[in-house]
Amino acid sequence: MFRLLVVNCWSLLVLLCLPFLYALALFHFPTKKYLQGRWRNFLYFCWQCWCHQKNTGGWLFFCSSAGEYEQAVPLLDKLQGKRQDKTLLFFSPSGYRFAQLRREPARCLLAPPDLFWLWWLCFAACRPRAVIVIRHELWPAFLAAARCWSTLYLVDASFPHRRYRHLRGWLLGFFHKIFVVAELDRVTAQHSFSVPQARLLVAGDSKYDRAAQRVAEEKLNDTAFLLLQEHAPRQRLLIGSAWEAEINAVLAAYRSCRDRWQVLIAPHTPQAQMVSWIESLCQQQKFSVRRYTQLSLPFANADVIIIDTLGCLTELYALADLALVGGGMQGKVHNVLEPVFHGLPTAMGKNFTNSSEAKLLHDAGWVAVVDADSITAWWQAHAAKHIDRARREQQLAFVQALCGATAAICAVLETDCG
């Protein structure tokens, strides 16, 4: 009864906020377009489910954005049933667009406002056998409606802090089972958020499985990739998900090792303005530069190659000898797993505490921390042509040992939901 009262009060608050949002949309076309698209997507999904009841009863995943979607992919692949029997629910439009860009065969849906009756309509239409929340989408009305219609699971749960103990403990109480990343997360959930021990299982993190899966399976056959693969007269440093701070630091250090190295820059957002800025910076410092999408044989040995497209960073790490992961010098570090799973010596900036895997790999000695002053020394330390194969094998063995969460999670899901 108390839960129902709280959820209804929350839904009323959300409902009262909606008129202000739609009033803003009258004067702001992007907001209007965004809201119309979200409603159209949700209503079409519900209508499709009502018209084709035979397609209901699958697995429903709630992902915040693209990162959580990537963590869900190994689970989508391993769970029984066809991919079309699964539904991906996104809070962020960027995650939805990313899944569409990757031609995700599962049904994709944008989350509506967190109103209990809207979620009730959604679950009544699709009737999932289980609802699986990836990491941290804890919305009161969604959780209350999902628990009424299905078994509810939280996957890849991590609790780095103990803030909002009572609220978070109440929200975690909706779940039938919670798969936590590490033993410390289990202890935190049990003692700080009052989650019964029987509901908590330590399973690891499916992001490691996804990184290993992408490194092992995905390949590129475009002309630029094949050119870089066939023509490698120099060693390569790849800056992945780069921001201005990393780009400036690398280009400043590049003067001393230009004759032995080629630099590949993959901006975090490869928009036209960013790509033009990198080109201008390279030209000012007299470096030859070429865009990845315009690459041809005479320019494959340019000093700097700008990766001006999305979706190919994982594969490009296979062409590199050294990796610097962006974000850590400017804000928050991005994905360090992919270069490490390629066996590359990897570095990042000092702002990496947002990433549990970055902290783990740094503490284990597999990822270095550099800044604008120390990047030259780090780079020169890896300038020798020979590869330390023993260290590379140790690095790969370390990260491979972190895999296995997907199998553990899916075994429980399939046993519970049959």
Walkthrough of the structure:
The protein has 418 residues and is an alpha/beta fold. It folds into two domains: 2-214 and 404-417, Rossmann fold, CATH 3.40.50.11720; 221-396, Rossmann fold (3-Layer(aba) Sandwich). 48% of the residues lie in helices and 15% in strands. It is built from 18 helices and 14 strands. The strands form two sheets. Strands 3-2-1-4-5-6-7 form a seven-stranded parallel sheet, sandwiched between helices. The longest helix has 26 residues, at 2-27. The chain is globular, with a radius of gyration of 23 Å.
Keywords:
single chain; 15% strand; 14 strands; alpha/beta; Rossmann fold; 7-stranded parallel sheet; 418 residues
Number of domains: 2
Assigned CATH class of the largest domain: Alpha Beta
Query: What class, by secondary structure content?
Result: alpha/beta
Q: Give the termini distance in whole angstroms.
A: 30 Å
CATH superfamily of the largest domain: 3-Deoxy-D-manno-octulosonic-acid transferase, N-terminal domain
The geometry reads as globular
CATH topology of the largest domain: Rossmann fold
Give the helix tally: 18
Strand arrangement in the largest pleated sheet: 3-2-1-4-5-6-7
Query: What's the number of extended β-strand segments?
Result: 14
Average pLDDT reading: 87
C-alpha Rg, in Å? 23 Å
> Which assembly state applies to the chains in this document?
single chain
Helix content: 40-55%
The major beta sheet can be summarized as: 7 strands, parallel
* Residues in β-strands, percent: 15-25%
Q: Specify the CATH architecture of the largest domain.
A: 3-Layer(aba) Sandwich
